[in-house]
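Risk register update: the risk of archive-format incompatibility is retired. Evidence:
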Amino acid sequence: MKTWRYNAVRYSKMVIVSGAMTLLSACATGSGTQNQAADEPEDAQSIPMDSCDTAAISYAIGETFDEANVPQLQSESQSRQVRVLRPGDAATMDHRPDRLNIHIDSSENIEALRCG
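Archived output:
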């Protein structure tokens, strides 16, 4: 019985130590990216994660939706992806700042344009 208890304590210590080492190594790899960002000059332009701009295409709200206009809306909004959503369509809840969501009403008119 004593041997079993000794092995259990020894095993739990090994698990705790390996967990701590994993956490410390994760922190060490994250610090390198912070130093890289600090080395960049202040006037350097970075590519924004939120590259979708609905203000540039707000003119399309209320117009009849046409699949042929999707590339133009994508280009003008500077989005990387486009998703067309009609009433009753299932949509994932993942937020993608570079995706343009075109919301269509039951009359096939563009109801809303949102990024995400």
